[in-house]
Amino acid sequence: MDREEFEIDLSMFTSRGKALALASEGCPKDYSKIAQEYFEIRSDIFPESMVFFACISRARGLHEGIFNAILKNNPHATFPLIRAYAELITVIIYSLKKPNYLSRLSGIGLESGRGTVPFGQMFEEISDEAPGMASVYHQLSEYSHLRELAIYNVHKTDETNPFKFSWTDTPNWKSEKEFYIACAQLRELSIAGRTYLRRFNTELIPKA
Predict the structure, then answer these.
(1) Could you give the CA distance from residue 26 to residue 29 in angstroms, rounded to a whole number?
(2) Please, which of 5, 23, 43, 149 could form a disulfide with 183 given CB 3.0 to 4.6 Å?
(3) Which of 205, 171, 176 is nearest to 72 (CA)?
(4) 156-158 and 161-166 beta bridge pairing
(5) How far is CA 184 from the centre of its chain?
(6) What gap in Å lies between CA 46 and CA 99, rounded to an integer?
(7) CA-CA distance, 14 to 131, in Å (whole number)?
């Protein structure tokens, strides 16, 4: 699977052990710490709090799920879950720009019942802060939806004979580089996820 357009720096990912350590960084303790930080500045629960708690649980669950899929050399689970983490970050960034959107998500408030905003529209709105998110999401979607990218990612061609290929039903990476890219993507997204969760806590939820 060709992912070079993501332009992820792999210089730190010098071995499988190092890559896995970087990919698992902050999970689960950082997510628990973010939850604790909520109660350090308030004791009440608000409609925005319900969305915040759901985002923490989802971020941690996706981080753990992606990491476990990477451990099992399973790109078919890894990349669709990475896509889901990218969606979560997109929703949080969009909400930071459009705080009233939280009432749509919680179903409480002036905009409740208006429905969700399409991701294409969200990508345009957050392009100044996350300019590469739309292109990353597009390629992850191509893989997740069993389109051409996903079809040919499971076939390994013979470098000496372009008409010869191998295939197995056992999940595996198309190349060793793909393993490192998955680890790098998880690390990059999880850092962003924790950063924006903290901003959610301080910027979108009332203090009292």
Answers:
(1) 6
(2) 23
(3) 171
(4) antiparallel
(5) 11
(6) 14
(7) 27
- Residue pair 76/171 in contact by the 8 Å Cβ criterion: yes
Q: Which helix (H) or strand (E) holds 156?
A: strand 156-158
The set of residues, in sequence order, having a beta carbon less than 8 Å from that of 94 and lying 6+ positions away, is 101, 117, 122, 125, 126
The pair of three-digit structure tokens given for residue 98, joined into one six-digit string:
């459009």
User: pLDDT tens digit string along 35-93?
Assistant: 999 999 999 999 999 999 999 999 999 999 999 999 999 999 999 999 999 999 999 99
- Let me know: does 47 contact 102? Beta carbons within 8 Å: yes
Q: Check if the beta carbon of residue 186 is closer than 8 Å to that of residue 82.
A: yes
For 166, the enclosing helix (H) or strand (E) is: strand 161-166
Q: Would you call 90 exposed, middle or buried from its count of C-beta atoms within 10 A (0-12, 13-18, 19+)?
A: buried
Angle (CA) 177-179-185 rounded to 5° is 100
> Could you give the CA distance from residue 189 to residue 208 in angstroms, rounded to a whole number?
31
Partner residues linked to 98 by β-bridges: none
**∠191-193-194 over CA atoms, to 5°?**
70
Task: Express each pLDDT in 14-46 by its tens digit.
Answer: 999 999 999 999 999 999 999 999 999 999 999
